[in-house]
Write a structure and sequence with these properties.
seven-stranded mixed β-sheet, eight-stranded mixed β-sheet, alpha/beta, disordered C terminus
């Protein structure tokens, strides 16, 4: 199971045009900063140096709270990089997400692959550590016994095992459902619920707007995000089913994204396009860019693990998979050629020089034996680099798929997901 968000924007960067001077811009006029985006720069100009103190906590919280109120994509905070790259305008930590300034939390649910229950509970404000918490997991055997033992001392924590209807199915979803007295919020992210994933790795975190109850006269919310979410939650049943019924009462029309989910199993007929990259294909064909507007634009795929992808690039990567990612609204019936493909993955040196050193490689698997079987991938590979956001040395655990213009100045769509590029994860 994996979750993804697709939106027609530039993700962590603003949808405004980028100033040609970037983080070196010398302008001080606030109007200029309203008209142009400046990656790595404060709201009104010159960013603080790496050794300067971060902004006062109150101001930082107010800024992040305002951003969360409208919904947006953040980086996760990274320890060991310049303060300006952890600005609350761009970065958020798990303790920020769960803090009281995002709302008065009364219940929450976490969908994830790996849990450290005591650590997770410490990320909640002390006053909220006794609120009902649901952990949705895919553990079996020894892993399930360990998770139960960790959760047992906490009477407010309930567990639900995801149904995995195939031998190699896994539960890689990364999502939070947060209920407040005044509404609900959905958070989709790329990190496991363990300390190391929220410390010195590059992660993505989408925080929804605060969804409020539907008004009696409003009827059903027209949001396709809500439709996507409820359809996905309906697969689980149990306690998640009760969350689904609760969420159905809220207006989610302010969410300007689509949710792309995947569920293990053999899907046929109409169900083929409900999940995974075929769902993405369907969304792009109905709501994506027109084919003429993105002609020649590459597909860029950045991920943190690589599995077996076939004997040649035509087995799957540059056939079925690239066909899905290059889909768009067709203006003619003519068959369009597939666009250039760029695959972004850290090199050995990137891992060695990362903030975590070689330890970071534990979260970036690519077996040597698998590498030797698919040498064609080298023709598409690009190294990980994130200088403008200060995260080149923060090993990527985030996964992003996008359709940028050749010069990088425009973006047709962006997908942030837990999907790692493994053939079996689709």
């Amino acid at each position: 199971v994996w979750l993804a968000l697709m939106e027609p924007s530039s993700g962590c960067a603003s949808s405004k045009p980028v100033c040609k001077y970037g983080q070196h811009c010398y302008r001080k006029n606030p109007t200029h900063f309203q008209e142009f985006s400046h990656p790595g720069v404060g709201k009104h100009g010159a960013a603080p140096d790496a050794d300067e103190e971060p902004p006062p906590a109150k101001k930082a919280k107010e800024s992040a709270s305002e951003l969360c109120s409208s919904g947006r994509l953040f980086w996760s905070k990274v320890r060991g990089i310049a303060n300006r790259f952890n600005s609350p305008l761009d970065a958020i930590g798990i303790e920020d997400i769960l803090s009281s300034w995002t709302g008065e939390l009364i219940a929450s649910a976490h969908f994830n692959y790996v849990f450290d229950v005591p650590w997770l509970l410490q990320q909640y404000p002390p006053a909220k550590r006794h609120t009902p918490i649901l952990l949705v997991h895919g553990e079996k055997g020894e892993g399930l016994a360990r998770l139960r033992a960790e959760a047992q001392p906490f009477k407010n924590i309930a567990l639900q095992q995801a149904r995995l209807d195939m031998p190699f199915g896994t539960h890689h979803s990364k999502m939070m459902l947060l209920e407040y007295g005044e509404g609900v919020r959905v958070v989709v992210h790329t990190a496991n619920l363990v300390h190391k994933d929220w410390d010195q790795k590059t992660q993505g975190v989408w925080v929804s707007p605060l969804f409020t109850l539907l008004k009696e006269t409003a009827g059903h919310s027209p949001s396709l995000f809500k439709q996507d979410l409820l359809e996905y939650l309906s697969v689980y049943g149990g306690a998640v089913g009760r969350w689904k019924e609760k969420l159905s009462l809220y207006d989610m029309s302010s969410a300007r994204v689509r949710l792309i989910a995947s569920v293990p199993g053999a899907h046929a007929g109409a169900h083929m396009h409900k999940w995974g990259h075929l769902k993405l294909r369907k969304v792009l064909e109905s709501s994506g860019p027109a084919d003429s507007s993105v002609k020649g634009w590459p597909v860029v795929a950045q991920f943190s693990s690589i599995g077996s992808l076939g004997q040649s690039d035509q087995t799957w990567v540059c056939s079925e998979w690239l066909c899905s990612l290059s889909s768009c609204q067709r203006e003619t019936s003519c068959v369009q050629s597939l666009p250039p493909l760029q695959l972004v993955f850290p090199s050995v040196d990137d891992v060695r020089n990362s903030l975590e050193g070689y330890r970071a490689g534990g979260s970036i698997p690519y077996a040597l034996q698998t590498f030797k079987k698919q040498p064609y991938l080298k023709n598409y590979m690009c190294r990980w680099k994130a200088d403008e956001t200060g995260r080149t040395r923060a090993a990527p655990h985030i996964k992003t798929y996008l359709r940028p213009s050749p010069d990088g100045s425009q973006l047709a769509w962006l997908l942030v997901t837990r999907y790692s590029g493994l053939m079996s994860a689709v």
